[in-house]
Amino acid sequence: MTRGAHVPERTLVSVDGLTKRFGNLTAVKDLNLQVSAGEIYGLLGPNGAGKTTTIRALLGFINPTEGRVGVLGGHARELDIRSRVGYVGGDVTLDRGLRVRNLLTWYAKLRGGPAWPTIQDLCDRLSLDPSRKIGQLSTGNRRKVAIVQAFMHDPDVLILDEPTAGLDPLLQRDVLSLVRARRDAGASVLYSSHTLPEVEDIADRIGILRRGVLVHEDTIFNLRDVARQRLELRFADDVPAGLLDDVEGVSEVVIDGGTARVVVDGSVAALVDRVAGHRVERIVSHDDDLEDVFFEYYRDGEKENT
Ligand SMILES: Nc1ncnc2c1ncn2[C@@H]1O[C@H](COP(=O)(O)OP(=O)(O)OP(=O)(O)O)[C@@H](O)[C@H]1O
């Protein structure tokens, strides 16, 4: 059995040199990552990248081939630690014959609380009717049950494997606000997703997994810094000839009468300085920049393999 990694208390989730092989397939290769108290870590990657395998190893559902995992200074298989963890899995399988209320009460008993009114509040927040039978629920409502059981005991660690799949945008927003509230209370959150927009507003750091390897890890702040922005500047008059020549960080300049379209790498400061003496009526940002950065890492990887 894998022993829990010995980590300082502030690092609540740790993966040290994790490798997991299924026969000839290496699903995760020498992975290292840590999530601190009060931090949301977005684990990103396309289908098959190894996110679920990492999470299953962290929770003790599968044994690492090599390396160690640790949760709250021990291992998630230990009951006292498991009861401080909240988990939403990619596949929600629940006992179809039970009523929502009975299932949630059973989870609460396992963990020594919380009392029903707390659970009812969470159900209300997610518009989940606890009197319904699990088998009668839609996929989205079954996911809500999984979310309520994961959050109801105010866990110190949240491990969320694509938790909002199948939820409408309003509910996604509600789930994200529950996640933020736990982070603000000092919990560590590992949040896996295959798209960046889902986590970019809440994650403090992200790691990008590709074919089992962590190809990039950074803070959202730094990613934004290196991201390219496509801007459209609308001037009151025609753009003066040469105005946007040789501006630091600016490329792909296209001028059409009073409109200039540009791509900016990093800071827009030099561009703003250059146009300062001219009347700019409107600046439009086509802000798909971070997603571009994200896909850049996939593309680089594909090039390596061709
Ligand atoms: N029990 C298993 N036996 C054999 N292969 C497995 C097993 N579990 C996962 N794999 C393989 O390991 C690789 C990583 O899968 P994993 O489910 O971890 O990816 P993922 O990033 O979570 O993808 P998704 O977003 O599709 O869930 C895949 O190639 C998958 O087919």
From TrEMBL:
Keyword Nucleotide-binding carried by entry: yes
Subcellular compartments: Cell membrane
InterPro entries per the UniProt record, alphabetical: AAA+_ATPase (IPR003593), ABC_transporter-like_ATP-bd (IPR003439), ABC_transporter_ATP-binding (IPR050763), P-loop_NTPase (IPR027417)
Pfam families reported in the protein's UniProt record: ABC_tran
Domain ABC transporter: 13-236
Family, similarity comment: Belongs to the ABC transporter superfamily.
Alphabetized PANTHER family for the sequence: ABC TRANSPORTER ATP-BINDING PROTEIN (PTHR42711), ABC TRANSPORTER ATP-BINDING PROTEIN NATA (PTHR42711:SF5)
Name of protein: ATP-binding cassette domain-containing protein
Higher taxonomy: Bacteria, Bacillati, Actinomycetota, Actinomycetes, Jiangellales
